[in-house]
Design goal:
Blueprint (H helix, E strand, L loop, with lengths): L16 H14 L17 H44 L5 H15 L6 H16 L5 H20 L9 H21 L7 H12 L4 H19 L1 H21 L5 E8 L2 H11 L5 E6 L6 E10 L3 H11 L4 E6 L14
Antiparallel strand pairs: 1-3, 1-4, 2-3
Helix pairs in contact: 2-5, 2-6, 3-4, 3-8, 4-5, 6-9, 8-9, 10-11
C-alpha cells in the first residue's frame, strides 16, 4: 500500500514516523522563543563588527547613489535642451507634459507681440506643483527633479544648438527618440522631469490609483488647442513625436515591471531574515530534494519590482554564494503588491 503523507500545522510534509517525531521535538524546544520558527538547523551568530561595517557600507552607498542621480540629472537636462532646440522648435512640435504646456504658452504669447520664453515657463509651471507635492512624495525625488528642471531651463536659455535636419519626418522621429531618452535617463537615475510625474505620484500615494488616463486626456486637450491655433499638421506630427518619446521611455525604463524570483538555497533562514529586513514583499518557502544530490534544499519564491532585482540578487549571494537564482518576468499579478516610493 502506498505510503501516506502527513501534514503538520506548519505545512511541512514528512514521510515517516522518525521524521515526525523529530519535527515535534524541534517544535517543542523552540516553543514561542522567537517571532518566526527557523527553517534550517544552522545556528545564528551575531557579529556586531560585521553589522557596523554593513551600516557604514549603506551610508557610503547612499552617497554614491546621490552622486549618480546628480550625474543622470545633468545629462538628462542637457539632452532635453538639445532635443528642444534641435528638433522640437525647428519642426514646430509640441512635447507632452508641462514642458509642452510651456512651449504652447510661448507660441501663444508670441502671437500677441511678446514672448513668455519656454525656459521660464518650465520653471514657473513646476514650482507650484513641487510645493504642493513636497509632503506627499519623496523629498529627494522632488529636489532632484527640480534640479533637472532648473538645469534644463538654464541650458535652454544659455546654450545654442544648431538644427542638423530639415526633413519634418526625420525631425519627428529622431527628436521623439532623443527627447524620450532624456526623460528615461532622469527616471533611471531616480529623478524625473517633474510636472505630471509629481501629480501622478502624489495621487497614487494618497489614493492607490493611477491618473495617467487623466494625464493623457490633458495632453489631448493641449494638442487640440495647439492644432486649432497653429495647424493640424503640426498637431499630427506632435502626436507622432509624443508616441515615439513614450515608447523610448518604455524601452529604457522598467521600474513598474514585476519579476518573479526563485531562490534555491541551503540557508533559508539567513536569506529570509535579511530579505524581509530590507524589502517589504511577501515570500513563500518550501522544502525540496535535489534530484541529483538527494540533499535537502529550500526554495524561496517572491514577486518584486524589476528595479529591485539587482539588489536582491546581491543580498542573496552575500548570504549564500552557492544559491541558485532564477529570475523571470511576471506577465500578470493578482493580489496586494507593495510598490516602494521612488528614492
Amino acid at each position: 500500500m502506498a505510503e501516506e503523507w502527513d501534514k503538520p500545522e506548519e505545512g511541512t510534509y514528512v514521510r515517516d514516523a522518525q521524521a515526525r517525531a523529530a519535527l515535534k521535538e524541534r517544535e517543542r524546544k523552540e516553543g514561542s522563543s522567537g517571532k518566526h520558527r527557523r527553517i534550517s538547523e544552522a545556528p545564528v551568530v551575531a557579529d556586531v563588527v560585521a553589522e557596523v561595517e554593513h551600516l557604514r557600507s549603506l551610508r557610503r552607498r547612499r552617497i554614491v547613489r546621490r552622486a549618480i542621480t546628480l550625474c543622470f540629472v545633468i545629462v538628462s537636462a542637457l539632452l532635453q535642451a538639445y532635443a528642444i532646440q534641435v528638433f522640437v522648435q525647428p519642426a514646430g512640435l509640441l512635447s507632452s507634459g508641462f514642458t509642452g504646456l510651456a512651449i504652447l504658452i510661448d507660441r501663444i504669447t508670441s502671437l500677441f507681440g511678446f514672448s513668455f520664453p519656454t525656459f521660464v515657463g518650465m520653471v514657473v509651471l513646476n514650482i507650484p506643483v513641487a510645493i504642493v507635492c513636497w509632503k506627499s512624495i519623496s523629498k529627494r525625488f522632488v529636489i532632484f527633479s527640480m534640479i533637472q528642471v532648473f538645469l534644463a531651463s538654464f541650458f535652454l536659455s544659455q546654450m545654442r544648438f544648431e538644427p542638423m535636419l530639415n526633413e519634418p519626418v526625420l525631425l519627428v522621429v529622431f527628436g521623439g527618440f532623443i527627447y524620450g531618452l532624456s526623460i528615461a535617463i532622469a527616471l533611471r537615475g531616480g529623478a524625473s522631469t517633474a510636472g505630471t510625474d509629481f501629480i501622478s505620484l502624489m495621487v497614487s500615494n494618497k489614493t492607490g490609483k493611477s491618473i495617467w488616463g487623466l494625464v493623457f486626456a490633458g495632453n489631448c486637450v493641449v494638442l487640440l488647442i495647439f492644432g486649432s491655433l497653429f495647424g493640424w499638421t503640426a498637431a499630427a506630427y506632435s502626436i507622432i513625436f509624443q508616441f515615439i518619446s513614450t515608447k523610448t521611455i518604455e524601452m529604457f525604463y522598467h521600474r513598474y515591471d514585476r519579476m518573479t524570483l526563485q531562490i534555491t538555497t541551503t540557508k533559508p533562514d539567513d536569506i529570509l531574515e535579511a530579505y524581509h529586513d530590507a524589502f517589504k514583499h511577501g515570500s513563500s518557502c518550501y522544502e525540496m530534494i535535489g534530484g541529483y544530490s538527494r540533499k535537502t534544499f529550500w526554495r524561496i519564491e517572491t514577486v518584486v519590482s524589476s528595479y529591485e532585482v539587482g539588489e536582491i540578487v546581491a543580498l542573496v549571494r552575500a548570504h549564500d554564494d552557492r544559491a541558485v537564482i532564477n529570475v523571470f518576468r511576471t506577465e500578470s499579478f493578482y493580489g496586494r503588491f507593495y510598490r516602494g516610493p521612488v528614492d
